[in-house]
Amino acid sequence: MQILTNHTPASTPIPGIDHVTVAGSGTGLRHLSVWKQSMAPGNATPPHRHTCEEVVLCIRGIGELHAEGRIERFIAGQTIVIPASVDHQLISVGPEPLETIAAFSMTPVLTTSPQGEVLALPWES
Amino acid sequence: MQILTNHTPASTPIPGIDHVTVAGSGTGLRHLSVWKQSMAPGNATPPHRHTCEEVVLCIRGIGELHAEGRIERFIAGQTIVIPASVDHQLISVGPEPLETIAAFSMTPVLTTSPQGEVLALPWES
């Protein structure tokens, strides 16, 4: 049992994406990761998929979800449920940063391109 | 892929605890649940354990964690990491409601008493 204090996303090698892994394999978990991210306006994740389930809570800002051939907008207070192995991309489309909390059903989180190539994340996931 | 909008915790049969299951088996997940709760000042969960891992993000308020023979205080911005099968109890000890987001590595979330008796949760977990 641990009480953790470090939860401020910090800049990463991915342009416009600040990240902190709140909890995961680095804090002793085996089946669960929780991330916080902030994405500057106009920035985006690459298209990608995970081999696990993901729930993304939008805390602030406006985002676009590109997945399954559709584009859907989401705002603070909404949540995205992403089944395992579904390609998706998130884009920060509002005037303020897009802030999210994401939970994953595995740790570390395996992330691949839509072509199945493993994407090396620049953080302990 | 779903974008969900209903995230306001509502009153439950457990005194002082408002709850909403943000995502879980009811939204098609198999290995992940996310809850939001608000606990009125002076209220508490019963002592309990889950058969899965749990991460609790404190969004607002002040809480006490009773676990492993210790009492620790936590505040908004802090996070609790709870391994599987560890007994714990959360108490809202501040002047305002204790608001939390919790992620679990299973769905539905199996909850038992410290004696191992299954606790029937009054919500779809």
Task: Summarize the structure in words.
The first copy, chain A, is mostly beta strands. Chain A has strands at residues 2-4, 10-11, 17-23, 33-39, 49-50, 54-60, 62-67, 70-75, 79-82, 88-92, 98-104, 111-112. In chain A, a hairpin with a 5-residue loop joins strand 2 (10-11) and strand 3 (17-23). Chains A and B meet through strand 1, strand 6, strand 9 and strand 11 of A and strand 1, strand 6, strand 9 and strand 11 of B. Strand 1 (2-4) of chain A pairs antiparallel with strand 9 (79-82) of chain B.
Per-chain topology:
2 copies of one chain form a homodimer.
Chain A: E1 2-4, E2 10-11, E3 17-23, E4 33-39, E5 49-50, E6 54-60, E7 62-67, E8 70-75, E9 79-82, E10 88-92, E11 98-104, E12 111-112
Question: What's this model, at a glance?
Answer:
The structure is a homodimer of 125-residue chains. By secondary structure, chain A is an all-beta fold.
Structural class of chain A: mainly beta
Q: Greatest chain-chain interface?
A: A-B, 38 and 38 residues
In the CATH hierarchy, what is the architecture of chain A at level 2?
Sandwich
- What's the name of the CATH homologous superfamily of chain A? Jelly Rolls
Provide a count of the helices of chain A.
Answer: 0
Poorly predicted runs of chain A are none
Q: How far apart are the first and last residues' alpha carbons of chain A, in Å?
A: 19 Å
Rg from alpha-carbon coordinates of chain A: 14 Å
- How does the major sheet of chain A shape up? 6 strands, antiparallel
Keywords, separated by commas or semicolons:
Jelly Rolls; six-stranded antiparallel β-sheet; 125 residues; mainly beta; 46% strand; homodimer
